[in-house]
Amino acid sequence: MRRAYKYRLYPTRDQKKKIEFILERCRLLYNRLLEERLLAYKQNGKSLSYLDQQNSLVDRKNHIPILKHVYSQVLQDVAKRLDKAYQAFYRRVKQGERAGFPRFKQKQRYDSFTYPQGGYTIQGNKLKLSKIGEIKFKLHRPVEGSIKTCTIIVKNGCYYACFSCEVEAVLLEPTGRQVGIDLGIKHLAIPSEGKPFESPTYLRKSERKLKQLQRAVSRKKKGSNRRKKAVLLLAKQHEKVANKRKDHAHKISNSLVQSYDLIAFEKLHIQGMIKNQHLAKSISDAGWHQLVQFTSYKAESAGRAVVQVDPRYTSQLCSNCGNLVKKTLAERIHRCPCGTTLDRDINAAKNILQRALQVS
């Protein structure tokens, strides 16, 4: 299975210039390849393939000598990246989803390049990259498995190296326990047994700071250096909030995978739910999808099972007798004529677990 390891890079001023130079060359090449595909389709009714564009890279380097300052496989990955965008577009069209045709990249939308096979080596606390040199980086944990690709990412003025590695799955000992999880706003995750996991509401806690930074951006003249600095500060604050939410989701998902063999979630249509203007911010701040995603990939590597079930009537049905007990959203206690009285969310979590056991 694949696992990614991300590390902070500390390049020198000269190395930063080289990284920015390679990013710009890759972005321009991406846009040029996309333009050629569009032109070929207009003229011939058939687009170019990945191999067509990959084979043209040698001639491009002869006609554009500046491309020789970029590692050859990095250029090949640009063509591969465009081909993946096209394949994803075709897949979405076939499945009837919102297509989203590949588009030309502005500087803000192209922030990484990849060494797909070679051109990089780890030497102690330094990462040696072809055409760039040895860059210091913080190896806060060892890289496990066989490294397949190395991606250099530039985000909000910081530099990162992301290694995609092939590792062997480490299966955990069975616990004999199953749990249903009801996702909420006040509590992020309410299990059918045990204590609920709190929703930290990092976005709401940072709203005042974010508003101040947003006002500072609005006051600056468009295109000025002061506006660019203000935008960077705002982006860093948003990233800080996102990192806190991600860290919280990692801790909860790890706890669930360590404790249970089967973890059941409700399959919510989150995109539709955030259209509710009264709950949109709270739902986005909770990060339900992220929690389910993190739990799923950790469960796969640990030999656990994650099941998503239909959420309809999980709060209304009695988990003990199955009777439909209608209640408004304001009613937080489930009371059934059969004598069952418990928290509404715990009742929903028990129903979610029962549905998952019927499916699995």
What does this 3D model show about the protein?
The chain has 360 residues and is an alpha+beta fold. It is 45% helix and 21% strand. The protein has eleven helices and 14 strands. It has helices at residues 13-44, 50-55, 57-63, 72-94, 202-205, 207-219, 225-259, 270-273, 280-286, 288-302, 344-359; strands at 2-10, 112-115, 120-123, 126-129, 133-137, 146-155, 158-166, 178-183, 187-191, 197-198, 262-266, 305-309, 333-335, 341-343. A seven-stranded antiparallel beta sheet has the order 2-6-7-1-5-4-3. It has a five-stranded mixed beta sheet with strand order 10-9-8-11-12. A two-stranded antiparallel ribbon has the order 13-14. The two termini are 23 Å apart. The mean pLDDT is 92.
Helix/strand class: alpha+beta
Q: Determine Rg (CA atoms, Å).
A: 25 Å
State the helix count.
11
What shape does the CA trace take? elongated
Beta-strand percentage range: 15-25%
Averaged pLDDT: 92
Quantity of strands, as a count: 14
Order of strands, main sheet, comes to 2-6-7-1-5-4-3
Structural topology:
Blueprint: E1 2-10, H1 13-44, H2 50-55, H3 57-63, H4 72-94, E2 112-115, E3 120-123, E4 126-129, E5 133-137, E6 146-155, E7 158-166, E8 178-183, E9 187-191, E10 197-198, H5 202-205, H6 207-219, H7 225-259, E11 262-266, H8 270-273, H9 280-286, H10 288-302, E12 305-309, E13 333-335, E14 341-343, H11 344-359
Parallel strand pairs: 8-11, 11-12
Antiparallel strand pairs: 1-5, 1-7, 2-6, 3-4, 4-5, 6-7, 8-9, 9-10, 13-14
Helix pairs in contact: 1-4, 6-7, 7-10
Keywords:
360 residues; alpha+beta; seven-stranded antiparallel sheet; 45% helix; 21% strand
